[in-house]
Specification:
By secondary structure, the chain is α+β, with helices and mostly antiparallel strands. The protein has one domain: SH3 type barrels, CATH 2.30.30. It contains two helices and six strands, in the order E-E-E-E-E-E-H-H. The chain has a six-stranded mixed beta sheet with strand order 4-3-2-1-6-5. The two termini are about 20 Å apart.
């Protein structure tokens, strides 16, 4: 995980032209879905993951700082969170993409030791 939850700590080429869209996302304990979109905005990088049937077709937003590594050969992104932590994260809606308070809440959630916010 990077020191800034909203910045990708590895090669920035991964964010160019939505290269990661369609990649599978692997949590510590298994697959959580596929990347539906990425945001490359400086200081606000994230991926939106379509969880498919795993969480009843919902989407989740993951700050780029959760990404441990990218495997381009197998089109997978590995994140430093388990499935329960992702499933219990603050609910994502279409308006969450640009909501500063949602981003703050989500960043606090993933930065907290137990994945909870105050």
């Amino acid at each position: 995980m990077t020191s800034n939850m909203w910045e990708y700590g590895h090669g920035q080429d991964d964010w160019a032209n939505n290269r990661l869209v369609g990649y599978k996302v692997e949590a510590i304990d298994g697959n959580i879905g596929k990347i539906d979109e990425t945001t490359a905005e400086t200081g606000a990088q994230c991926v939106v993951v379509d969880t498919g049937p795993w969480i009843f077709g919902q989407k989740v937003m993951l700050p780029a700082g959760l990404i441990d590594r990218v495997d381009h050969d197998n089109e997978k992104v590995y994140v430093s969170a388990d499935k329960d932590r992702v499933k219990n994260s603050p609910e994502f809606t279409d308006s969450s993409r640009t909501d500063d308070s949602y981003r703050q809440n989500l960043g606090d959630y993933y930065n907290s030791p137990r994945g909870t916010t105050r």
